[in-house]
Amino acid sequence: MKRRIGVGYVSMGEEEKRLVNRVLSTNRLSYGPMCQKFEENWARLHGRTHGVTCNSGTSALEVILHAFRIERRWRDGDVVFIPALTFIANISTVLRQNLVPHFVDIDPSTYTMDPQKLDGEISRVKKEGRNAVAVIPVHLAGLPADMEPITQRARKEKLAVIEDSCEAVGALYRGRPVGSFGDAASFSTYSAHIITTGMGGIITTKKKTTAVLCRSLINHGRDPVYIDIDDDTRSSPDIVDRRFRFRHLGYSYRLTELEAAIGLGQLKRLQQVLTQRRRIANLFTKNLHVFKHNLKLPTVPEDRTHSWMIYPIVANNDINRDNLIHHLERHGIETRPLMPLLNQPAVIEAVGNQEDQYPVAKRIARQGFYIGCHQGMTKTDVEYIKNVLKKFFL
Ligand SMILES: Cc1ncc(COP(=O)(O)O)c(C=O)c1O
Fold first, then answer.
1. Strand 336-337 to strand 184-188: parallel, antiparallel, or no bridges (unpaired)?
2. Was domain 270-393 assigned CATH 3.90.1280.10?
3. Using CA atoms, how far apart are residues 39 and 45, in angstroms rounded to an integer?
4. Can you state the percent helix, strand and coil of the chain, rounding each to 5?
5. Nearest atom (ligand 1) to Cα of 61
6. Which atom of ligand 1 approaches the CA of 192 most closely?
7. Helix crossing, 379-393 with 270-287: angle to 10°?
8. Atom of ligand 1 nearest to the CA of 200
9. C-beta 138 within 6 A of ligand 1
10. Which of 79, 213, 274, 276 is the most buried (most CB within 10 A)?
11. Which residues contact 209 (CB under 8 A, 6 or more apart)?
């Protein structure tokens, strides 16, 4: 069979199977003890008191934005800063909440939001007389964004900070976990991610009222007095009256007990998975160093710990990136472009073509790509990738 090295990797251990079987034997599939434990463990791991499960990282982002709209009285047209290179969900969720995305160029070595550029964009928005309400730093590829200057500036401007941590479970910035810096954070447990439940997402926050509101929004905007079937057992007149009352126009974005059971099992292996990913990343960095005149390998600032959801590579400007990725694909090495955003047809249709205003993001979007960096890979895979690259360059 032809060799195939994927960008993601799914493997279910005995613990996941045991917990899923336990769910099946209880006949309890909707929000219950597995979801609660998963939320608790996830929030604790990321330095937060509250976790709220939902069905995707995109739902998590959308619900946080909606909750903040209500809590902070945001209005249609308020501005949200997002990186100029990131996953599509960062713009689609902002637009769906009738907010205006304002791009911030990225740092050329980490590919995350550049704090100095954020300063410039804040001044620009102010000068134009528009009202900015939030910033969404994205921990791209598993590497934390430069959170200290970003949060400092955000606090000064009274902007909410929403950490998009969908790609970075377990990553650290100055020894502190991602998710513990902002007002809320979104995580994804989609199949290609580090910890997977198939589909899934989690919101973390330290504020109880925000968590309660997010949970209500995920449940159709239902009165928070009645969120799961256990509330029926407390059949006080209050619950009976309010069981079918909706405070907000919400969503049906819930996670099931089956997915939470998988997630709980996966979480137990998180440190082992991260160690394996770091080992593969180190092997890549050692082995691919020979291509330093053609390829820029990822840099990890000393104050950060990478989770390596993927391994990003940027080809020098004189290399035809598309020919290179087709060469890799022909040899069974799966690739993706490195999260180009501004040149996507849907983005151009929604906000016009703004690529030229964000030169770093424009270059990385054209020359960047990523390959897998996961626990399903071996030293032999890394050597194979090196040899395939050699065929292209030498
Ligand atoms: C940075 C980022 N944000 C949000 C998401 C959305 O997560 P999901 O696919 O679970 O909706 C992703 C998904 O890959 C992502 O990479």
1. unpaired
2. no
3. 10
4. 45, 15, 40
5. 4
6. 14
7. 30
8. 10
9. yes
10. 213
11. 71
Rounded distance between C-alpha atoms, residue 14 and residue 64, angstroms: 34
Question: Contact at 8 Å (CB) between 166 and 87?
Answer: yes
pTM (2 decimals)?
A: 0.97
Answer yes or no: is the C-beta of 164 below 6 A from any ligand 1 atom: yes
Closest by alpha carbon to 55, among 213, 217, 181, 206? 217
Hey, which residues does 134 pair with through a beta bridge?
80, 160
User: Number of C-alpha atoms within 13 angstroms, CB side, residue 34?
Assistant: 28
Q: Which residues of 146-183 are buried (b: 16+ CB within 10 A; e: fewer)?
A: bbeebbebbeebebbbbbbbbbbbbbbbeeebbbbbbb
Question: Measured from the CB, is residue 339 less than 6 Å from ligand 1?
Answer: no
pLDDT tens per residue, range 344-393: 999 999 999 999 999 999 999 999 999 999 999 999 999 999 999 999 99
Q: Which of 7, 53, 55, 58 to mutate to test the pocket of ligand 1 (most atoms within 8 A of CB)?
A: 58
**Cα of 8 from ligand 1 centre, angstroms:** 13
For residue 184, the cross-strand partners are: 162
User: Is the CB–ligand 1 distance for residue 89 below 6 Å?
Assistant: yes
pLDDT tens digit sequence for 147-168: 999 999 999 999 999 999 999 9
Angle between helices 257-268 and 270-287 (to 10 degrees): 60
**Residue whose CB lies within 8 A of the most ligand 1 atoms, among 112, 140, 169, 190, for a mutation test:** 190
Class of domain 14-268: alpha beta
Mean pLDDT of 34-38: 98
Helix axes of 57-71 and 208-218: crossing angle, nearest 10 degrees: 120
Q: Beta partners for 371?
A: 311
Q: Share the mean pLDDT of the chain.
A: 96
Q: d(Cα 380, Cα 5) in Å, to the nearest integer?
A: 11
pLDDT band, residue 232 (cuts 50/70/90) = confident
Rounded CA separation 311/372 (Å) = 6
Which residue ranges make up each domain of the chain?
A: 14-268, 270-393
